Amino acid sequence: MNEAFSIILTVYNQGAELEAKLPAFLTQEYEPGYEVIIVDESSTDNTSNVLKLLENDYKHLYTTFLPKPSAQICHRKLALNIGIKASKYEYIIISKISTSPTDTDVLKAMAEVIDTKAELTLGYVSKKHIRLQPFDTIAEAEGHILRLERRITKVRERQYGNYAWGRYDFMILRKDCSLELLKLFEQKLSAVSLIGIRLGILWKNFCRRSSTTLLYTSPTDS
């Protein structure tokens, strides 16, 4: 695969983490090129100051922000939508700042093995390797993506249901499939629905093990 990537991260009050881990995203050695898009969800700490300083050093870093959403709007979907609209490349990686690359050639290594026929690929990161799990369609990956945070989280002096990350660490998809992905975050799940999703995943894994690709990594010493 010889495609450029748009890497999207949404953050909230993570100034210290951005300062420590964002450079690892920005120093990938990948010839086709890439951009990193940060969507700041109206942080109240020093996030904006950290991003301004990093923008001066990295021309491929683009930052934008999410206005305070109302309780009726899924902020996760809105933040991702802003990031996707700002992206300029066909392939998108949606990640989180806590899962920073362990080496400068991680993006290159993933590009070499990505299944281009898959609409979406989920990535799982451990200390020794990265596992890529491709799905032919977004619908096929639905159960893995939908994990509704059960508690009501009070953020920015507002309370609303919030989608939490599933057991994956990042996802890779084509931009033309992003609308279908965003629709998943509109769904309101009951406890019974969540149990059904988990049982469905277990059954599928039992009947047919999804094909995965392992990338072995050698983290640098901290």
Tell me about this structure.
The structure is a single chain. Helix 1 packs parallel to helix 2 (47-57) and helix 3 packs antiparallel against helix 6. The longest helix has 17 residues, at 191-207. The protein has a single domain (5-216), classed as Spore Coat Polysaccharide Biosynthesis Protein SpsA, Chain A. The model is unreliable at 148-163, 189-203 and 205-209 (pLDDT under 50). With 222 residues, it is of the alpha/beta class. Strand 1 (5-11), helix 1 (15-26) and strand 2 form a beta-alpha-beta unit. The strands form two sheets. An eight-stranded mixed beta sheet has the order 3-2-1-4-9-5-6-10, sandwiched between helices. It has a two-stranded antiparallel ribbon with strand order 7-8. The chain has helices spanning 15-26, 47-57, 75-86, 106-113, 142-145, 178-184, 191-207, and strands at 5-11, 34-40, 61-65, 91-95, 120-125, 129-135, 153-155, 158-160, 170-174, 213-216. The two termini are 31 Å apart. The chain has seven helices and ten strands. 32% of the residues lie in helices and 23% in strands.
